[in-house]
Specification:
By secondary structure, the protein is of the alpha+beta class. The protein contains six helices and ten strands.
């Protein structure tokens, strides 16, 4: 058992987060969820069949695939995989692989509204225990070329770490005009739904706190 910030008791081994995302790890840590990280090393660009799916289903499918890959290496453990897709103008956009590509994407998104779909899948021994997908709508500011390049210069290759290229919990908030949805979804983990499901599984015990 591990203390959950004196609010409740975590029952069982730490969760395995099948992701190298620092943002997702910070969310688990701030919520008091004990975790370990294990990169799935899934190549999202070659995952079979996902192009036929809508953006939310794509995120869910990739989250599931990541969790199942790591689950195969970690028998008996609770594994969560997460993924995020960006929908804009009828297209699903992917993480940029080059800084110049990120600048091009910012040009397209500037002054417009797009959607982020964040999914999490929880797996144990290959079996899916639950899946959640949440959507946030983001209005990006109209930005000058100089402002875009200034932001990318400040972020460096960090703009390649997320599908939108911005980190709302950091200076990326300066790029946005408004959001419709919760910030956790934008960071990349539907945290409220995840915590609710972990409580249903009995992993978070709020009733029997040991003082």
């Amino acid at each position: 058992m591990a203390a959950l910030n004196d609010f409740g008791i975590w029952r069982g081994d730490p969760i395995i987060l099948a992701s190298k995302s620092k943002g997702r790890a910070r969310l688990l840590e701030s919520a008091g969820i004990p975790y370990e990280t294990e990169d799935s090393k899934l190549d999202e660009r070659v995952a079979s069949g996902i192009d036929e799916l809508n953006p939310g289903a794509q995120a869910t499918s990739l989250a599931r695939a990541k969790a199942q890959l790591v689950s195969s290496r970690c028998p008996g453990r609770i594994v969560i995989g997460a993924d995020q897709t960006l929908a804009f103008a009828g297209q699903t956009l992917h993480k940029s692989t080059r800084v110049e590509d990120a600048i091009d994407q910012f040009r397209r998104l500037a002054g417009a509204r797009h959607e982020l779909h964040s999914a999490v899948a929880c797996v144990r021994d290959g079996a899916v225990l639950f899946e959640i997908v949440e959507t946030a709508k983001i209005q990006m500011r109209q930005l000058s070329e100089a402002a875009l390049r200034s932001y990318v210069r400040a972020m460096g290759e960090n703009v390649l770490r997320s599908v939108g290229g911005y980190e709302i919990e950091g200076i990326g908030a300066n790029l946005l005009e408004s959001i419709d949805g919760d910030i956790f979804t934008i960071i990349g983990l539907p945290l409220f739904g995840l915590l609710a499901e972990l409580r249903k599984l009995g992993l978070i015990d709020e009733e029997n706190i040991i003082r």
